[in-house]
Design goal:
Blueprint: H1 2-20, H2 26-38, H3 44-57, H4 64-76, H5 80-88, H6 93-96, H7 104-114, H8 119-124, H9 126-129, H10 136-152, E1 157-158, H11 159-174, E2 179-185, H12 186-189, E3 194-195, E4 197-204, H13 210-221, E5 226-232, E6 236-241, E7 246-253, H14 257-265, H15 268-280, E8 284-286, E9 289-292, E10 295-298, H16 302-308, H17 324-330, E11 344-345, H18 359-368, E12 373-376, H19 391-410, E13 416-419, E14 422-424, H20 435-438, E15 444-447, H21 456-467, E16 472-475, H22 493-503, E17 506-510, H23 518-527, E18 531-534, H24 546-555, H25 569-576
Parallel strand pairs: 4-7, 11-12, 12-13, 14-15, 15-16, 16-17, 17-18
Antiparallel strand pairs: 1-3, 2-4, 5-6, 6-7, 8-9, 9-10
Helix pairs in contact: 1-2, 1-5, 3-4, 14-16, 21-22, 23-24
Bound molecules: 2'-deoxyguanosine-5'-triphosphate, calcium ion (2 copies) and zinc ion (ZN).
Length: about 575
């Protein structure tokens, strides 16, 4: 929900500024309101429209003063209180908090002790950071790494973060007069995990006049989100949004819509390989169509083009020139896993380890997703910032799940919660929960959440040793990477995959982190290792994010058979025995 998110971001920052001024209580209120809003499933704009200020005030964690700020934002697009705080503050919070590892407390110290105000002064005074009390060389190195990371990733956007905006614009274009079809093409359609720019394709009737094209172009360049029009032409326009995202639009006649879809979906490498095949057969292929001796033989549909060239239609996620063309010629393309195949999720967090979701809430959210089961995988005790569960809490949770499942059974509801856990792998490779308690769970998934800076050998041994525990069924986010945020730690994945194969442990494709990318998926598939797709949801609106893991699975050629969460509950329980 892009509006909720936008407001939440501002409220959170207000909290930060207040914390900086050492004002009591208020910061927490703003932070809590922001966290609630970000995870809230309904659009605040809609709530305000229907119920006014009162509706906002009735939301959890929101009192009258914050409700008024939200109202102000909805009415005017800004919050004066926020702009004032920001103006008064000597510190550029917005950008400094983007540096992984820098929270309000540290930023405050950096300012007070070294006069660091923004990214630039941070870079300048970096060598003095290590000697600050409470920082040390390790922290300074981490900050340095995070700064480099920030620079590197500039320019590309996470698919997950732009999709809401893209959907909105797609709808807007679809509702424009004279528009027959809209396709989001380019890397967005191929579901690449990061996007350089978004490529919209609009189809209009063959006999549409110039006025129609003009209307489409005008709609596009005057979208609310657009702050800069880079170019505006007869058939093509480019713009920049306020978040810095570039977007292209091309308008084509419907008789060329298929060939244009094919061309602008790419990838460039796939297109070049396909064009080579066309040329070999005496055709010419471009965005306007497939031609033989200047006569257009195909163009309306993508399928038609592939078919005429002797290929089956290729799913966009596979179009990377990674063997898909030959497979399409030979009719050996895989049947990719689809959203419908997913019967449950093994990675999500309840209010027991933070957040505000009860187990019942989670069950009903899972049923909304049409799942058969949901694995509760709260963190364990070593993860103190996340309120990790200790043995006794886990045992209580197990009881509670049994009780809820019993109720489902009584009421003949065909859904079950699974007793899972995201158990912490300690520095020495042991798990932080006793085997006795682990044996009571339906499945155990394990993760590294600490001590990232080990040698490759040590880290590999650590994880291998954890994988030897007989109750382990899933290894979560094996590289530690969080795409766009944090790099992977050193680890020998070949060894890890071998062990996974040997012990029948599944490797997680984490939807949020995107650390297991399509190349790894493909390798795991080839090795015959099962995978899971995990949403890693901590809030209401994050369950549906499982689709981003699904996209990476598809880009890695995964079929239903390769992914554990496509199994029915009975088959799964059998498998885990
Ligand atoms: P991006 O934007 O970096 O995430 O990646 P794409 O794939 O969206 O690339 P983009 O936006 O430059 O171009 C969109 C599509 O247009 C691309 O996937 C294939 C097609 N295309 C662009 N340039 C060429 C080219 O030089 N040759 C061919 N055959 N196709 C091209
Ligand atoms: Ca693009
Ligand atoms: Ca482009
Ligand atoms: Zn998790």
């Amino acid at each position: 929900m892009i509006l909720n998110h936008e407001i939440a971001k501002i409220l959170f920052e207000i909290g930060d500024y207040l914390e900086l001024q050492e004002i009591p209580f208020k910061p927490k209120a703003y932070h809590q309101a922001a966290i609630m809003l970000d995870g809230f499933s309904e659009d605040v704009g809609q709530i305000y429209k229907e119920k006014g200020l009162k509706g906002l005030e009735e939301l959890p964690s929101i009192g009258i003063s914050i409700a008024e700020k939200i109202e102000e934002f909805l009415k005017t697009g800004t919050i004066v209180y926020y702009s004032e705080l920001k103006k008064q503050s000597p510190i550029d919070f917005e950008n400094l908090t983007k540096v992984e590892g820098l929270g309000v407390k540290r930023i405050k110290k950096l300012y007070n002790e070294l006069g660091i105000r923004d990214i630039k002064t941070l870079e300048e005074k970096l060598d003095r950071v290590a000697s600050l009390p409470g920082f040390g060389q390790k922290t300074a190195d981490n900050i340095k790494g995070a700064l480099e990371f920030l620079k590197q990733s500039k320019g590309r956007f996470l698919l997950r973060e732009i999709i809401p905006l893209v959907d909105k614009i797609e709808k807007r274009l679809k509702n424009t007069k004279g528009v027959v079809n809209v396709l989001v093409s380019g890397s967005t359609r191929r579901r690449k995990e990061t996007i350089g720019d978004v490529d919209f394709l609009v189809g209009i009737n063959d006999d549409a006049d110039r006025y129609i094209i003009e209307t489409v172009m005008n709609t596009f360049v005057s979208l609310d989100e657009v702050i800069k029009v880079v170019s505006k032409g007869e058939t093509r326009s480019s713009v920049k949004t306020s978040e810095g995202l570039d977007m292209d639009l091309r308008v084509v006649r419907m008789s060329s819509f298929g060939s244009a879809s094919q061309y602008f979906t790419g990838s460039k490498e796939h297109n070049i390989a396909l064009r080579r095949i066309a040329i070999k057969q005496g055709f010419k292929l471009n965005e306007y169509g497939l031609f033989m001796n200047d006569t257009k033989v195909r163009g309306e549909t993508e399928e038609g083009i592939y078919e005429r060239l002797g290929l089956s239609w290729v799913e966009p996620e596979l179009r990377e020139d990674q063997g898909e063309i030959v497979a399409a010629q030979e009719g050996t393309l895989p049947t990719l896993i689809t959203e419908k195949d997913i019967k449950g999720d093994f990675h999500c967090h309840s209010g027991w380890d933070g957040g505000d979701l009860s187990l019942e809430d989670m069950a009903s959210l899972a049923m909304e997703m049409r799942y058969e089961y949901l694995g509760i995988s709260d963190h364990t005790k070593s993860l103190r910032i996340e309120n990790g569960l200790d043995e006794s809490a886990l045992l209580r949770q197990i009881k509670e799940i049994d009780r809820i499942n019993h109720e489902f059974k009584e009421k003949e509801i065909p859904f079950r919660l699974l007793k899972g856990s995201e158990v912490d792998i300690l520095k020495d490779g042991s798990l932080d929960i006793s085997d006795y308690v682990l044996s009571k769970l339906d499945y155990v998934s394990i993760s590294i959440h600490s001590h990232f800076k080990m040698s490759k050998y040590q880290m590999t041994e650590r994880v291998l040793s954890a994988m030897n525990n007989p109750y382990v069924r899933i290894l979560n986010h094996p590289t530690g990477k969080i795409l766009g945020k944090r790099d992977s730690f050193e680890i020998d994945l070949d060894e890890i995959f071998k062990k996974a194969k040997e012990r029948g442990i599944a490797i997680e494709i984490n939807s949020y982190r995107a650390d297991i990318n399509s190349q790894y998926v493909r390798k795991l598939k080839e090795m015959g290792i099962k995978m899971t797709i995990g949403s890693d949801a901590h809030a209401r609106n994050e369950f549906a994010d499982i689709r981003f893991g699904l996209y990476q699975a598809r880009r890695g050629w995964a079929s239903k058979e390769n992914i554990l969460n496509t199994m029915s509950l009975d088959a799964l329980k059998d498998y885990w025995k």
